[in-house]
Design goal:
mainly beta; Thiol Ester Dehydrase, Chain A; 2 domains; 4-stranded antiparallel sheet; 3 helices; 4 strands; elongated
Length: about 130
């Protein structure tokens, strides 16, 4: 069984390509029991599929939410539905690194909260935008 796991110890099913989605987090799950289970449940079939995918983007990271559904059946039909939501995370490179490399330590170049709330700019400013857009 351990040979079937990915390097982070979780099942590799439906994982987005890495990179850029290098981290995975458990968001939530739900188990539905469709009938009373016997202690000697014989599993006849397991189906696994993606139920839903949502993408959320922010300045610091992108998260791909994947809802996986597992249907576990015994000899009489579906016994358990196991629904899991996993978040796959792409953390964006921090502009502060670029600012340090160019010896430009003004906060408007790497602190988006400062640029917006103190200096009243719509976002961080500087050459980093040119690099990111090309």
């Amino acid at each position: 069984m351990s040979s079937e796991l990915s390097s982070d110890g979780y099942l590799p099913t439906f994982a987005p390509p890495s990179p850029p989605f290098k981290k995975r987090m458990w968001v939530g799950s739900n188990l539905t029991f469709h009938k009373d289970l016997k202690s000697d449940l014989q599993i006849y079939n397991k189906e696994l599929f993606v139920e839903n995918v949502k993408f959320k983007e922010s300045e610091k990271k992108d998260i791909l939410f994947v809802e996986e559904k597992r249907l576990i059946s015994d000899e009489l039909g579906i016994a358990i539905t196991d629904t899991r939501t996993i978040g796959y995370i792409h953390e964006k490179e921090k502009p502060v690194v670029y600012s340090a490399l160019t010896y430009n330590s003004h906060l408007i170049h790497y602190d988006s909260d400062y640029a917006r709330n103190v200096e009243n700019y719509p976002a961080i400013l500087g050459l980093i935008q040119l690099v990111m857009e090309t």
